[in-house]
Design goal:
By secondary structure, this protein is an alpha+beta fold. It has 18 helices and 6 strands. The termini are far apart.
């Protein structure tokens, strides 16, 4: 009987060291994040403390755990992240982390951050990928061969590359190409840095705007090409560290730097540590033909979803930065400055009673700042106000919103139609006809709206 031909293409065995290095970095970074959640009392501020949470469409059933449950959940996330870094019970640790972090992510839409969404996706991939075959306690106790199928690295590279690419596509808009909103942000930070005088110039805003655009669009191909990979990585790392210095943005710079290392050859950690290469005698069992089809089919389905979801905002009329329709899950990162203020008029047509509601009386400040400029969240809060009045015995309740918003320094203008009863409008995926179009262009004068203190 002849020996079966070795696997080629997506199932060819490659060194698992690179995948393991990413797993370790991910675990260490998220362990630090879990500790930060606890030390900064984010559990109380963002999850258990607010009286009302803005939920994602279809996920209204997601609630914080009762009592000290959320605190214990965050402790569990830290433990799962530590086990991931150690490579102990790796897939189960990744699954526990994925479920716990996704639960926290879904509790409040006002806490949406692109890097939290990225953490959810990467944790999901770690559930599927054999990241424990090298540099792990699992590999030591189970004598695992330090090899992984090539598709596992390719899928991770695809996910990381797509983040860069869509961040670049999102910058192809009129405001960004004219230096907004970076012109505002750099000017606000001009007194904090050694080069502050240069940051406040128009040239700096255009340089950073176009530099960020080109870096995001070209990062994926330059990282994929062997001849430019190392220099592209240095530029990308410098870009993320600069963003960290100027804008903070949490763990995102560290997470992306760690994730970008997957573009290097699979054995780069062994070369860096001067460890012996993987023995050519080691081998991976070749999966059966049906299993190969299932793996490639599911990987293709995942890739298709990641490609299509960020494009959905093109199906909506108007600017996504104004209407916010299709903005989330699309890698629109640090692209617009939106300052808004919203008040609600609640009325009972039967009794003639009416109430002016300032959402700051009930919501946390971070919730208000996010909701004020996002029509879907304004609609959800209007529904909440209507339900509260119905619970007090008012049979018919109407809710209207007075919202003024300034996008990228434009003069404030109405964001939603103040004559529309939002209590009668349904949440959904269809365009909201009661969102007014953006009519003021850049450079028309006036001052951006600022919330009174």
């Amino acid at each position: 009987m002849t020996e079966p031909a070795p696997a080629r293409g997506p199932f060819a065995p490659v060194d698992g060291a690179s995948l393991a290095a990413f797993r370790i970095s991910f675990g260490v970074i998220l362990l630090g994040e879990a500790v930060r959640f606890l030390l900064a009392d984010w559990v109380g501020e963002y999850w258990t403390g607010p009286a009302f949470h803005f939920t994602f469409l279809g996920f209204g059933w997601v609630k914080p755990l009762p009592g000290a449950g959320t605190t214990l959940e965050v402790c569990g996330l830290g433990l799962a992240a530590a086990l991931l870094a150690l490579g102990l019970w790796t897939r189960w640790s990744a699954l526990a982390f994925f479920l716990g972090f996704t639960h926290l992510f879904l509790i409040d839409k006002a806490r949406y951050l692109n890097h939290f969404y990225l953490v959810v996706l990467l944790a999901f991939l770690l559930v599927l990928l054999p990241s424990n075959r090298a540099f792990s306690l699992d590999a030591r106790r189970r004598s695992l061969a330090p090899l992984v199928p090539a598709w596992s690295l390719s899928l991770l590279r695809f996910q990381v590359g797509l983040v860069y690419f869509y961040a670049g596509v999102a910058k192809l808009n009129e405001d960004w190409l004219r230096g907004w909103p970076l012109r505002m942000w750099l000017e606000e930070r001009s007194d904090r840095h050694l080069l502050g005088g240069l940051l406040a110039t128009e040239g700096a805003a255009l340089l950073v705007s176009y530099g960020g655009l080109l870096l995001d669009l070209l990062a994926w191909p330059l990282l994929a090409w062997r001849r430019t990979r190392f220099h592209a990585f240095l530029v990308v790392a410098a870009f993320h560290l600069t963003n960290k210095t100027l804008f903070g943005i949490g763990i995102f710079p560290w997470l992306m730097i760690a994730a970008t290392t997957v573009f290097f050859p699979p054995d780069w950690p062994r070369r860096l540590l001067r460890l012996p290469p993987v023995s050519s005698e080691a081998a991976l069992p070749a999966p059966s033909a049906p299993r190969r089809r299932w793996i490639l089919g599911l990987a293709g389905l995942y890739a298709a979803v990641q490609v299509l979801v960020p494009l959905r905002h093109f199906l909506y009329p108007g600017s996504v930065h104004w209407t916010e329709e299709g903005h989330l899950f699309s890698w629109h990162m640090k692209l617009r400055s939106k300052r808004s203020e919203a008040f609600f008029l609640v009325s009972d047509p039967d009794s003639g009673d009416s109430w002016v509601v300032d959402p700051r009386a009930e919501l946390r400040e971070w919730q208000v700042e996010t909701m004020d400029g996002r029509p879907d969240m304004i609609l959800q809060y209007a529904h909440h106000l209507a339900e509260s009045k119905r619970a007090q015995g008012h049979r018919r309740v109407e809710v209207r919103a007075e919202v003024r918003s300034s996008l990228n320094g434009r003069p404030p203008q109405a964001l939603v139609d103040p004559t529309v009863d939002l209590a009668a409008q349904r949440r959904g995926l269809a365009p909201y006809r009661w969102v007014l179009p953006l009519v003021e262009g850049l450079g028309t004068g006036g001052s951006p709206l600022r919330r009174p203190r």
